[in-house]
Amino acid sequence: KVIVNIPGEEAYDVRIGTGVLDALGARMRGVPSLEQAERVLVVTDENVAPLYRDRARESLAAAGFRVPDIVVPAGEDTKSVEVAGEIWEAMAHLSLGRDCAVVALGGGVVGDLAGFAASTYMRGVTLVQVPTTLLSMVDSSVGGKTGVNLTAGKNLVGTFKQPAYVCADTGTLSTLPEREWACGCAEVAKSAVIDSDEFFFWLVEAADALAAREEAVVSEAIARCVVFKADVVAEDKTESRGVRECLNYGHTLGHAVEALAGYGTFSHGAAVAEGMRFAARLAAALAGASLEFVAAQDDLLDALGLPALAWSAEPADLLAAMKRDKKARHGQVRFVLPRDVGSWELRDVDDAVILEHLEAWARSKE
Ligand code: NAD
Ligand code: ZN
Fold it and tell me: What confidence category does residue 328 fall into, taking pLDDT thresholds of 50, 70 and 90?
């Protein structure tokens, strides 16, 4: 169990382990705002529903909740204003009041979408996150960002809404496809590099066991990531102080790779790993990172099943894609650059410097 304590918010528990899903209802009764609650709406997607919805509902029913549910299509396209609207309408149709709770059962798509619906319906009802992907356990279920995509870009509309409880049942990961597993591993590696020597070298040792999904290592990796993310969010709850931007390590180039290759061509994790490899090289040139660090991170990503992509694009096209990202400020592309494990800086990097390094990176693959 990890307790997340963010200034100005109710502290909440994150339970991690096999079987914690079966105690979901009982644990939720321990949340003050849910002691008397009658109904909870389970939001899940069509892949997760046949696997885990009944177990979630049984646990909730055993704790005395009535449990309507809504099943949304799986996939990123579901994170839309339209589907959020369907959830609001369903909630109103069920006459759910401010005392209800929304349980987001699924990956980051369901978590962001259901979190958004929960934070806006009647100006906000209680949210419980039940993440079922490695990525959502290590990253998206904690920290309070919710949101939907617009045609103009991802996550352009959203809220900050901390969950009242997070239930990460590592048993549910047994059905996760390999590609989604690697996605989560990229965020674990990202967290370890930014966090500390201690986390990084633990992960170097544990990488093979994590790739093989050994339960004890999986749970520990999740717990370490949750502690790391909670610390970052506690310092910068609303992403206004620059601290939270470290979570974007590897994502500057990663997002550009995803967009240029076409969404879905590479997994988000594969693209982020590529972005970490590139950012580390940039950091060696600009921020004093050592070549040993670059090599150690390469080895870690290899061990986690995240090899360098056998793909490259025109540097000018990658640069243009980075500039289209909403995180570019005044046309300047910004990178999180590790000086070393556990130490990083934010840097606006000139176009010419980025192009020069993108060319070198592409040449290194020839
Ligand atoms: P996802 O929710 O699309 O899940 C990936 C796939 O796995 C889906 O097809 C899903 O149906 C399936 N799935 C989920 N759990 C499963 C299980 N246990 N067994 C078998 N299949 C399962 O994707 P994701 O990678 O979990 O999340 C990505 C989303 O998270 C993106 O929209 C991203 O923007 C968001 N995100 C949010 C934050 C945040 O802070 N809020 C942080 C990072 C990412
Ligand atoms: Zn990511």
Answer: low
